[in-house]
């Protein structure tokens, strides 16, 4: 699996997690978040592995110390991803390394 595909798979899992949440009076927040994450997953799946965004995520350690593991941004960035409610897909990807650096 390529890095882009691994990232997209992670984002799709998080989207389904949001869709599976049942909260009264969430005013559509979970649905909006799921759609934003699915949009970002579609965007990420189309990125080549040498795209600057993918390389930036690799440098942040999202693909393990050798850069060949499945996408795992760590606890702090996963919280960011799980709370993402919208914006341009690249904005979420750009925010991940900053969150990782701040939590380290």
Task: Give the helix tally.
Answer: 5
Question: Share of helix among residues?
Answer: 55-70%
Shape: globular
The arrangement of helices and strands along the chain is HHHHH
| Count of structural domains | 1
Average pLDDT number: 92
Please give the largest β-sheet: none
How much of the polypeptide forms β-strand, as a percent range? under 5%
Structural class assignment: mainly alpha
**Rg, please?**
13 Å
Our measurement of the CA-to-CA distance between the termini, rounded to an integer number of angstroms, reads 27 Å
List the uncertain runs: none
Strand elements, count? 0
Oligomeric form of this entry? Answer: single chain
What can you tell me about this protein's structure?
With 104 residues, this protein is mainly alpha-helical. It has one domain (3-103). Helices cover 65% and strands 0% of the residues. The chain contains five helices and no strands. It has helices spanning 3-20, 29-45, 52-59, 74-83, 89-103. It is globular.
């Amino acid at each position: 699996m390529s890095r882009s595909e691994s990232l997209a798979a992670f984002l799709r899992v998080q989207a389904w997690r949001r869709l599976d949440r049942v909260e009264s009076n969430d005013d559509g927040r979970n649905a909006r978040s799921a759609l934003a994450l699915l949009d970002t997953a579609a965007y990420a799946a189309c990125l080549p592995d040498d795209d600057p965004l993918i390389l930036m995520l690799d440098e942040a350690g999202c693909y393990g110390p050798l850069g060949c593991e499945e996408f795992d941004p760590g606890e702090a960035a996963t919280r960011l991803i799980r709370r993402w409610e919208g914006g341009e897909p690249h904005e979420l990807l750009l925010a991940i390394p900053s969150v990782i650096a701040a939590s380290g």
